[in-house]
# Entry
Amino acid sequence: AQKVTQAQTEISVVEKEDVTLDCVYETRDTTYYLFWYKQPPSGELVFLIRRNSFDEQNEISGRYSWNFQKSTSSFNFTITASQVVDSAVYFCALSEMDGGATNKLIFGTGTLLAVQP
Amino acid sequence: EADIYQTPRYLVIGTGKKITLECSQTMGHDKMYWYQQDPGMELHLIHYSYGVNSTEKGDLSSESTVSRIRTEHFPLTLESARPSHTSQYLCASSEDALGGYTFGSGTRLTVV
# Structure
Protein backbone atom coordinates (compact mmCIF):
# COMPACT_ATOMS: atom_id res chain seq x y z
CA ALA A 1 0.00 0.00 0.00
CA GLN A 2 1.07 3.54 -0.64
CA LYS A 3 2.07 5.50 2.42
CA VAL A 4 3.82 8.74 3.29
CA THR A 5 5.36 9.28 6.71
CA GLN A 6 6.37 12.62 8.15
CA ALA A 7 7.69 11.68 11.55
CA GLN A 8 8.25 15.26 12.69
CA THR A 9 4.96 16.64 13.93
CA GLU A 10 6.33 20.04 14.97
CA ILE A 11 9.65 21.79 14.57
CA SER A 12 10.62 25.10 16.12
CA VAL A 13 13.71 27.00 14.99
CA VAL A 14 15.09 30.49 15.37
CA GLU A 15 15.27 32.71 12.34
CA LYS A 16 18.34 32.13 10.11
CA GLU A 17 18.72 28.53 11.21
CA ASP A 18 18.66 25.79 8.60
CA VAL A 19 15.92 23.20 8.99
CA THR A 20 15.22 19.86 7.29
CA LEU A 21 11.78 18.33 7.04
CA ASP A 22 11.80 14.57 6.62
CA CYS A 23 9.59 12.52 4.33
CA VAL A 24 9.66 8.74 3.89
CA TYR A 25 7.37 6.98 1.45
CA GLU A 26 6.26 3.45 0.59
CA THR A 27 5.10 2.33 -2.83
CA ARG A 28 5.19 -0.73 -5.08
CA ASP A 29 4.92 1.37 -8.23
CA THR A 30 8.03 1.84 -10.31
CA THR A 31 6.71 5.11 -11.69
CA TYR A 32 5.50 7.65 -9.20
CA TYR A 33 5.74 11.29 -8.30
CA LEU A 34 6.58 13.00 -5.05
CA PHE A 35 5.44 16.45 -3.99
CA TRP A 36 5.84 19.05 -1.29
CA TYR A 37 3.10 21.53 -0.40
CA LYS A 38 3.11 24.45 2.01
CA GLN A 39 0.04 25.44 4.02
CA PRO A 40 0.41 28.89 5.63
CA PRO A 41 -1.96 30.03 8.39
CA SER A 42 -4.34 31.38 5.75
CA GLY A 43 -5.24 27.77 4.92
CA GLU A 44 -4.60 27.19 1.24
CA LEU A 45 -2.10 24.59 0.08
CA VAL A 46 0.67 25.95 -2.10
CA PHE A 47 2.49 23.64 -4.50
CA LEU A 48 6.28 23.74 -4.02
CA ILE A 49 7.82 20.94 -6.06
CA ARG A 50 7.13 17.76 -8.03
CA ARG A 51 9.75 15.07 -8.59
CA ASN A 52 9.36 11.90 -10.67
CA SER A 53 10.79 8.57 -9.61
CA PHE A 54 13.38 8.50 -12.39
CA ASP A 55 15.00 11.77 -11.48
CA GLU A 56 17.13 11.57 -8.36
CA GLN A 57 18.93 14.84 -8.90
CA ASN A 58 18.70 17.17 -5.97
CA GLU A 59 16.95 20.43 -6.65
CA ILE A 60 17.57 23.89 -5.29
CA SER A 61 15.25 26.86 -5.55
CA GLY A 62 16.47 29.87 -3.64
CA ARG A 63 16.57 28.96 0.03
CA TYR A 64 14.71 25.70 -0.61
CA SER A 65 16.35 22.42 -1.55
CA TRP A 66 15.13 18.87 -1.91
CA ASN A 67 17.04 15.62 -1.51
CA PHE A 68 15.48 12.57 -3.20
CA GLN A 69 17.01 9.18 -2.38
CA LYS A 70 15.29 6.09 -3.77
CA SER A 71 17.61 3.81 -1.80
CA THR A 72 16.09 5.04 1.44
CA SER A 73 12.68 6.00 0.00
CA SER A 74 13.11 9.52 1.26
CA PHE A 75 12.35 12.95 -0.14
CA ASN A 76 13.59 15.48 2.39
CA PHE A 77 13.11 19.24 2.23
CA THR A 78 15.64 21.74 3.58
CA ILE A 79 15.09 25.43 4.19
CA THR A 80 18.32 27.39 4.48
CA ALA A 81 18.45 30.53 6.61
CA SER A 82 14.84 30.19 7.69
CA GLN A 83 12.59 33.22 7.95
CA VAL A 84 9.44 33.94 9.93
CA VAL A 85 7.45 33.79 6.68
CA ASP A 86 8.44 30.14 6.36
CA SER A 87 6.22 29.31 9.33
CA ALA A 88 3.58 26.93 7.99
CA VAL A 89 2.52 23.31 7.81
CA TYR A 90 4.43 21.40 5.16
CA PHE A 91 3.00 18.31 3.51
CA CYS A 92 4.83 15.64 1.56
CA ALA A 93 2.72 13.66 -0.92
CA LEU A 94 3.02 10.66 -3.23
CA SER A 95 1.03 10.06 -6.40
CA GLU A 96 -0.92 6.85 -6.60
CA MET A 97 -1.81 4.82 -9.67
CA ASP A 98 -5.57 4.60 -9.93
CA GLY A 99 -6.96 2.53 -12.81
CA GLY A 100 -3.78 3.11 -14.77
CA ALA A 101 -3.82 6.85 -14.26
CA THR A 102 -1.45 8.50 -11.88
CA ASN A 103 -3.52 11.05 -10.16
CA LYS A 104 -4.52 10.47 -6.59
CA LEU A 105 -2.21 12.01 -4.05
CA ILE A 106 -1.45 10.36 -0.74
CA PHE A 107 -0.48 12.98 1.80
CA GLY A 108 1.67 12.68 4.88
CA THR A 109 0.37 14.00 8.16
CA GLY A 110 2.27 17.25 7.83
CA THR A 111 5.02 18.99 9.78
CA LEU A 112 4.27 22.26 11.53
CA LEU A 113 7.29 24.55 11.23
CA ALA A 114 7.49 27.52 13.57
CA VAL A 115 10.24 30.03 12.90
CA GLN A 116 10.83 32.35 15.83
CA PRO A 117 12.25 35.84 15.26
CA GLU B 1 -4.85 35.41 -8.62
CA ALA B 2 -6.61 32.20 -7.63
CA ASP B 3 -7.79 29.89 -10.40
CA ILE B 4 -9.86 27.76 -8.08
CA TYR B 5 -12.45 29.37 -5.86
CA GLN B 6 -14.22 28.13 -2.79
CA THR B 7 -17.15 29.78 -1.10
CA PRO B 8 -17.93 30.50 1.59
CA ARG B 9 -14.58 30.97 3.28
CA TYR B 10 -16.09 30.55 6.74
CA LEU B 11 -19.48 29.12 7.71
CA VAL B 12 -21.16 28.60 11.06
CA ILE B 13 -24.47 26.77 10.95
CA GLY B 14 -26.84 24.93 13.22
CA THR B 15 -27.24 21.19 13.48
CA GLY B 16 -29.63 19.69 10.95
CA LYS B 17 -29.20 22.36 8.31
CA LYS B 18 -28.50 21.52 4.69
CA ILE B 19 -25.44 23.19 3.24
CA THR B 20 -23.58 23.29 -0.05
CA LEU B 21 -19.92 24.20 -0.29
CA GLU B 22 -19.05 25.66 -3.65
CA CYS B 23 -15.91 24.97 -5.68
CA SER B 24 -15.21 26.37 -9.12
CA GLN B 25 -12.09 26.38 -11.28
CA THR B 26 -11.29 28.34 -14.41
CA MET B 27 -8.45 26.18 -15.68
CA GLY B 28 -10.52 23.61 -17.57
CA HIS B 29 -9.20 20.77 -15.44
CA ASP B 30 -11.03 17.47 -15.75
CA LYS B 31 -9.96 16.15 -12.37
CA MET B 32 -11.29 17.62 -9.14
CA TYR B 33 -11.09 16.58 -5.50
CA TRP B 34 -12.47 17.32 -2.06
CA TYR B 35 -10.34 16.89 1.05
CA GLN B 36 -11.39 17.15 4.66
CA GLN B 37 -8.75 18.45 7.02
CA ASP B 38 -8.85 17.76 10.74
CA PRO B 39 -7.74 20.32 13.30
CA GLY B 40 -4.75 18.00 13.73
CA MET B 41 -3.75 18.82 10.15
CA GLU B 42 -4.17 15.46 8.40
CA LEU B 43 -5.80 15.60 4.93
CA HIS B 44 -8.40 13.01 4.00
CA LEU B 45 -9.70 12.52 0.46
CA ILE B 46 -13.50 12.31 0.64
CA HIS B 47 -14.59 12.70 -3.01
CA TYR B 48 -13.07 12.98 -6.45
CA SER B 49 -14.12 13.31 -10.06
CA TYR B 50 -12.30 12.58 -13.31
CA GLY B 51 -14.76 14.50 -15.45
CA VAL B 52 -18.35 15.51 -16.04
CA ASN B 53 -20.86 13.01 -14.61
CA SER B 54 -18.02 11.14 -12.88
CA THR B 55 -17.86 11.06 -9.08
CA GLU B 56 -16.16 8.64 -6.71
CA LYS B 57 -15.90 8.29 -2.98
CA GLY B 58 -12.51 8.82 -1.46
CA ASP B 59 -10.55 7.05 1.22
CA LEU B 60 -12.46 8.56 4.14
CA SER B 61 -16.12 7.76 4.43
CA SER B 62 -18.18 10.91 4.38
CA GLU B 63 -21.89 11.67 4.70
CA SER B 64 -21.51 14.40 2.12
CA THR B 65 -22.36 14.08 -1.57
CA VAL B 66 -20.95 15.74 -4.67
CA SER B 67 -22.02 16.38 -8.23
CA ARG B 68 -20.16 17.21 -11.45
CA ILE B 69 -22.57 18.56 -14.02
CA ARG B 70 -20.10 21.06 -15.46
CA THR B 71 -16.35 20.77 -15.81
CA GLU B 72 -15.68 23.91 -13.80
CA HIS B 73 -18.03 23.22 -10.89
CA PHE B 74 -17.76 20.57 -8.14
CA PRO B 75 -20.07 21.39 -5.22
CA LEU B 76 -20.21 19.38 -1.99
CA THR B 77 -23.49 19.01 -0.09
CA LEU B 78 -24.32 17.99 3.45
CA GLU B 79 -28.02 17.17 3.76
CA SER B 80 -28.08 17.42 7.54
CA ALA B 81 -25.07 18.97 9.20
CA ARG B 82 -23.81 17.67 12.55
CA PRO B 83 -21.09 18.90 14.93
CA SER B 84 -18.88 15.99 13.75
CA HIS B 85 -18.80 17.68 10.33
CA THR B 86 -16.89 20.62 11.79
CA SER B 87 -13.69 20.77 9.77
CA GLN B 88 -11.90 22.53 6.96
CA TYR B 89 -12.87 21.42 3.46
CA LEU B 90 -10.36 21.88 0.66
CA CYS B 91 -11.15 21.60 -3.03
CA ALA B 92 -8.45 20.89 -5.64
CA SER B 93 -8.11 20.28 -9.34
CA SER B 94 -5.45 18.89 -11.64
CA GLU B 95 -4.81 18.93 -15.35
CA ASP B 96 -3.22 15.60 -16.08
CA ALA B 97 -2.10 12.29 -14.74
CA LEU B 98 1.07 13.74 -13.26
CA GLY B 99 -0.62 15.03 -10.15
CA GLY B 100 0.32 18.45 -8.88
CA TYR B 101 -2.97 19.73 -7.59
CA THR B 102 -4.08 23.35 -7.42
CA PHE B 103 -5.95 23.95 -4.19
CA GLY B 104 -8.61 26.44 -3.24
CA SER B 105 -8.42 28.49 -0.06
CA GLY B 106 -10.74 26.15 1.77
CA THR B 107 -14.02 26.46 3.67
CA ARG B 108 -13.86 26.36 7.45
CA LEU B 109 -17.15 24.84 8.55
CA THR B 110 -18.40 24.93 12.13
CA VAL B 111 -21.61 23.14 13.05
CA VAL B 112 -23.07 24.15 16.39
